[in-house]
Amino acid sequence: AEAAAEQLQLYRRDPEGWRGCRSTGEVAVSWRPSSEFAGNLYKGEGILPASPQNVWECIKPVAGGLRTKWDQNVKDFEVIEVISDTVSVCRTTTPSACMRIISPREFVDVVVMKQYEDGTMQSAATNVEHPLCPPQPNLVRGFNYPCGCFCIPVPG
């Protein structure tokens, strides 16, 4: 989990190579080739008219959290094991997509939540296997490379 958090910090600090691919008035999505796997990294950025704490409540990876209520790509989120007050093993399930062409998925990740001195909040995760969470027969087991979210306070 700590390695995933550090990898995300490296992505955040390195502005090189990101190319814009989509932008609305609220969100900008960029991508760049990954150095870890044969594919691309993606990041979405936006400024929300809300306090960092309210935004964090909507995105933080906790059981019973708000993410399953607003994010159509997250069907369920459960904590498999609590490692510490900031680290846990979690299972996320996603619904089928593209008129059921893409099967429902499950992801088992070790997740860390951090808060930094500047008020930035971060969740970082990466794939892990866990004996209490064997693959389910009706779901495709997905694999996450280091991934996560930052909630960064901005003045005003």
UniProtKB/TrEMBL annotation:
Keywords: Lipid transport, Lipid-binding, Transport. Residues 1-156 form the START domain. One of its GO terms (molecular function) is cholesterol transfer activity. The keyword Methyltransferase does not apply. InterPro entries: StARD5/6, START-like_dom_sf, START_lipid-bd_dom. One of its GO terms (biological process) is cholesterol import. It comes from the Eukaryota. Coiled coil: none annotated. Pfam families: START. The keyword Metal-binding does not apply. May be involved in the intracellular transport of sterols or other lipids. May bind cholesterol or other sterols. This is STAR5 protein. It comes from Pomatorhinus ruficollis (streak-breasted scimitar babbler). The gene is Stard5.
